[in-house]
Specification:
Strand content: 25-35%
Number of strands: 18
Structural class: alpha/beta
Shape: globular
Number of helices: 8
Order of helices and strands: HEEEEEEEEEEEEEHHEHEHEHEHEH
Oligomer: single chain
Amino acid sequence: MKKILIVGALLACVVPACAQQNLWKSQDIESAVVNLDHTVTFRFQAPNAQKVQIAGDFAEIKEDNPVGGLVGTGLIDMKKENDSIWVYTSAPLKSELYSYMFVVDGTVTVDPNHPYIFRDFGTVSNYFIVGDGLADLFRVQQVPHGTLQSIWYTSERFKMNRRLNVYTPAEYEKNPNKKYPVLYLLHGAGGDEDEWVNYGRTCQIIDNLTAKGLCEPMIVVMPNGHVSFEAAPGESSLGLYKPFHPAMMNGEFEQGFPEIINFVESNYRVQADKAHRAIAGLSMGGFHSFHISRLYENTFDYVGLFSAAVGLTRQEGIYKNAEETLKKQIANGVKLYWVGCGTEDFLYKNNADMRAMFDRLGLKYIYRESGDGHVWKNWRLYLAEFAPLLFK
């Protein structure tokens, strides 16, 4: 009996210790500390490392950067202090949300001392927010908050259940008889239905703009644009697989989009007409928005193309004779057609060619040109400027 009691006592001590081990920091230091002067201090403990760098979207970008796959990212060398801790303090940074990773002797890793991490399809990175002003839109403020729901719809076209993220405004539950306009917000080729929620900070942006009276209370629908997937990596019946990129921009998503509209309008209190529907997206999502809005040419009164990946597909299938449906869309009338692109974006010329076509066909649009390239700095900004123009 004594042996059993002793073993039981040991288990009582050991099991809670194992269950709670993740409560403690792996390194007893602070990193990505935003200082009062808007500088940011990074720290990383690696006593045996020969070189530690920061790969961040606030760093100068050089052509010889050895880190592949990190679009819009430069490299900064850190300095070793006390034979153990590598340290770097930035110059004062503008008001913005920034992302970064560490590169330790050539190996990319996240910062273990800063637990705030985004997953963008198969890539993870840390993030931090600096300053007041624009960055205030990206913070959780003390304002009424909308509700984010991950919900599944049945796609007859693709023979599967598929996942959507749906944001409803803070007042939605309090006004059971009110109907709301809808913004369909589409992700890029490297993303999924979680991309605009995480990197895009959509809930925070719409919450804060609505609280200030700068945009109309609206529902925002964020679907998965990869039709071969049920949902984001780790959220589907495929399990915890290593993310891989599927076939993209083949016309299937556009042709299946009416299922999404029908599901939303059957399950949420929406104003189900053209005047209360908007569609917008970044990169591949901008490409999808362009084609969906012209294919269903009397469905959306508001269209937003953010660094749209136009001009990258062969003119066949639904992409053939696009101008004819675009002419019908123009004839039906569009209250707002909004185009944004960065001057350093690799799709800059593609978007310029698209605008030349719009000019030739007589499509009136707002054009927003910003700095930087194909990066989230631009797309969050575009959403913050586009949303207040909707449903007026």
